[in-house]
Amino acid sequence: MTIYATPDRDGSTVRVIRRDGHLECVNCRIENDPEWPGERFTFEAYGIPAMLDHLDLHVAVGDIVPPTAFARLRHEHRDNLEAGNR
Ligand SMILES: [Zn+2]
């Protein structure tokens, strides 16, 4: 498992990991169901760009996403593109 961001590291208020090849935003407060206030869900991104967009949303609602998380995801994405994977 890769941890890109986790609460209390670099002041992060989100937890972003890669588990079994899937990028996940764990206990995401954006992806919660209005029918179940207080319940938290995990957002699963299909690809790095989707997760980057998702993290931009977190920043927009006032969450703290450490720059290191963005940098690492962008770096991996660039490596994937150079390797011919999309
Ligand atoms: Zn999220």
Description:
α1 packs antiparallel against α2. The protein has two helices and four strands. The protein has a four-stranded antiparallel sheet with strand order 1-2-3-4. It is globular and about 40 Å long. The relative contact order is 0.19. The protein has one domain. The longest helix has 16 residues, at 67-82. It has 86 residues and is of the alpha+beta class. The chain binds zinc ion (ZN). Zinc ion binds next to β3 and α1. The site of zinc ion (ZN) has 8 residues, from β3 and α1.
The mean pLDDT is 91
Main sheet characteristics: 4 strands, antiparallel
Strand order of the largest sheet: 1-2-3-4
Instruction: Report helical residue fraction.
Output: 25-40%
Ligand kinds: zinc ion
> Whole-number radius of gyration?
13 Å
Count of helices? 2
Oligomer: single chain
Give the structural class: alpha+beta
